[in-house]
Amino acid sequence: MRQRVLAHYLGQSTEAADAFFAAFRIPNFLQNLFGEGVLSASMIPEYTRLIAAGRADDARRLAGAVAGLLGAMVLAVVAIGVTTAPWLVNVIVPGFSGVRHELAVTLVRILFPGVGALVLSAWCLAVLNSHRHFLLSYSAPVVWNVAIIVATLLPRGGLAPERLVIWTAWGAVAGSVLQFAVQLPTLLRLTGGVALSLDTRDPRVRNVLRNFGPVFLSRGVVQISAFIDAMIASLLPVGAVAVISNTQTLYLLPVSLFGMSVAAAELPELAAAGGEPAARAETLRRRIALGSERIAFFTVPSAMGFLALGHLVAGVFLQSGRFSQQDSYWVWATLAGSTVGLLATALGRLLTSTYYALDDTRTPLSFAVVRVVLTLALGFIAAVWVPGWLGIDRRWGTAGLTASAGMAGWVEFVLLRRGLNQRIGDFRMPRGVLPRLWGAAAGAAALSWGAHALLVPHAPRGWAHTAEAAFVLLLFGTAYAALTLALRVEVARGLLGRLSRTSS
To answer: Which has fewest Cβ within 10 Å: 1, 106, 135, 245?
Structure first.
């Protein structure tokens, strides 16, 4: 919804949209970096063990020390960010100049104070997840998005996009504070209160800090891939940075919903797995296999839907106001490129969490570095050079950019899997699951395209067109569910059983 509102008022092929999405990457980077797993991976294993052992006071002291140290770090990060904003913009989007550059610098300076609240919000997430409270921590960003939407809608009189983005940026700052505030009462109730400190003498605090560095670099390396996309996109025509941002919002949705959610739910369980080494390895293999099957069940149709029906996905979620149908086709091409590595990225989050549960934060870092190097090299070739060699419009380089990032994602996944196989033994999804999932997704896409071909000639513009696209996408999802049931996919049958029990 946030992205649709921004698309409506800012468009996509505008300097204001490019400047905003470039600046917006900084708080998004830190939210994804910390929220996606740095604090969770470094803090949850230690905190969970203390809670499981009944040592609530030690757990509170650990949480208080981590919060205090984070607060001190945040002050330094915000001060440096505001001071060095022009330099940061030069690094993030070296292709910007003139109005786009000046506007991006202004927006970066506005957005940076909200970064601190987002970092502390990630600390809340780590504590709440350790207590098996997942809903609040992962739904809190809704408040942040609502604040951005309200701030964008608040001005009256039809402000120009260059002025409207200032309102939007201040809304992001207010939303960051609210996102932290809504989690705090529940956290204090669960922990009984947390006293802030800067104590690094506790060996458990030192262990969290020791793990924090490699995990930060590992997650940071992955997030740098998104910055590399923006850097290269800034060398393409106006609108390319906004296209990359809109595309990432769409293709990261299944990664977040299905990959990160399963990985986040499994991390405390994986970390708590005990017993003899052989028994623990068996537990880890079983949980990885089951988690991978659940992730694949939802991610495979997402990839197929983006590839075959991406123009409808972009139309339903983004096409409105200044965002044209031509913009939807640009997003579709870029989205199709991202499907190359969608499954690998989602499954990789679960494998990375398994390494963290084994107290190994350094191995995923080395694999992530390989991914970033490949993303940079392949991305520049595919986005900047290939369109010229093929004699096509340079803006289609965004599709090559996302496809090359997907190839790098598969390399990282293979390295993660091979390393775990050597440590805990081979783990696999049940034989034949992936072919059945891809077959069901392809069949559903073919059926949906048939319905789309029949409806398009009769679908007028506006809301009627949106309703037609929504119907085709709903048909795709329904057909996929029916086909997976017919093909006896266990996850589909389990979900149907849950729905039957819930309805009864």
So the answer is: 135
Neighbouring CB atoms inside 10 A of 432's CB total 11
Q: What amino acid is encoded at 485 in this protein?
A: L
For range 200-205, the mean pLDDT? 80
Q: In this structure, what DSSP letter does residue 430 have?
A: P
Average pLDDT for residues 405-433, to the nearest whole number? 89
Report the alpha-carbon distance of residue 338 to residue 341 in Å, rounded: 6
The answer for 160, left when phi > 0, alpha when psi is -120 to 50, beta otherwise, is beta
Q: Which two tokens stand for residue 168?
A: 């939007």
Say what the pTM is.
0.75
Structure tokens at 88: 């940061």
Supply the angle between the helices 240-254 and 277-317 in degrees, to the nearest 10: 130
Residue 216 neighbours by CB under 8 Å, 6+ apart = 33, 38
Cβ-based neighbour number of residue 261 at 10 Å: 18
Residue with token string 């989050």: 349
3-state DSSP assignment of residue 155: coil
Distance CA 191, CA 248 (A): 36
**36 CA to centre of own chain:** 7
Distances (CA, A) of 407 to 134, 261, 337, 344, 378: 32, 23, 10, 9, 9
pLDDT confidence tier of residue 66, bands split at 50, 70 and 90: confident
> Which burial class, exposed, middle or buried, applies to 98 when counting CB atoms under 10 A from its CB (0-12, 13-18, 19+)?
exposed
Amino acid at 281: A
3-state secondary structure 325-379: HHHHHHHHHHHHHHHHHHHHHHHHHHHHHHHHHCCCCHHHHHHHHHHHHHHHHHH
Distance (Å) of CA 289 to CA 283, 429, 433, 444, 500: 10, 5, 11, 25, 25
317 φ, ψ (degrees, to nearest 5): -90, -25
Amino acid at 277: P
**Are 368 and 412 contacting, i.e. CB atoms less than 8 angstroms apart?**
yes
The token pair that represents 164 in the structure block: 């409207």
Cβ burial, residue 65 (10 Å; 0-12/13-18/19+): buried
**CB atoms near residue 477 (< 10 Å):** 13
Unique residue bearing structure tokens 């996905």: 313
Residue 60 and residue 192 in contact, taking contact as beta carbons nearer than 8 Å: yes
Do 22 and 241 form a contact (C-beta atoms < 8 A)?
A: yes
C-alpha dihedral, 158 to 163 to 166 to 171, nearest 10° = 0
pLDDT at 40 over 80: no
